[in-house]
Amino acid sequence: MIERKPYASLGGANHGWLDAKHHFSFAGYHDPARMGWGALRVWNDDAIAPGTGFPPHPHADMEIITYVREGAITHEDSLGNKGRTAAGDVQVMSAGSGIRHAEYNAEPDVTRIFQIWIMPERNGGQPTWGAKPFPRGERAGHFVVLASGFAEDAEALPIRAQARVLGASLAAGEQLDYALGAGRYAYLVPAKGAVEVNGVRLEARDGAAIRHEPALRIVALEDAELVLVDTD
Fold first, then answer.
1. Mean pLDDT in runs of 10 for the chain (232 residues)?
2. Which of 6, 51, 78, 112 is the most buried (most CB within 10 A)?
3. 2-231 topology per CATH
């Protein structure tokens, strides 16, 4: 089963400094049919104006993954962490028992991100933050695990969920296969370019909610950049 969620159908709001689109219910957007997908709770497609951002605010009991599509995001938190995550790179915050953080676009141009929230296996625990570069060239033609709760994914940023966040870059005409385990949920968004997933066409920034598909065959109709969440 593959349910396409066209970009034009997403909820959201334009706040001036922030143009936000929501694949699932979030903030002022509520759709009882779009409350998440397995342990995936939030997938926001955000454009943040230069010199603006999210002032300090709290989180708890959530794995928050930020995939930077264009520009860069600058992070500060109550643990004393500070960092700048640039396009193509990823940051992860395990909110645990509670953390306050701020995210700003300190760049001269618009920053565009996917912010992905995954529910943790267990609540509580010491909050953490980390970031890592994932050069797009190293993902050419195959998926790279960006964040993972599985010990075997030693090169990925750790999260506290039985989930993986993966990225890939495909040239037009390239094909990529991905095995989805029994009982797993997948959600795929092309950050750029059009693709087909098991024959279902997705335009850039459409979502695909996938279940009961043991194997995914992804064909790039254009040069494409993909983000995939595989979760329980």
1. 98 97 96 96 98 97 98 98 96 98 98 98 98 92 98 97 98 98 97 98 98 98 98 98
2. 112
3. Jelly Rolls (2.60.120)
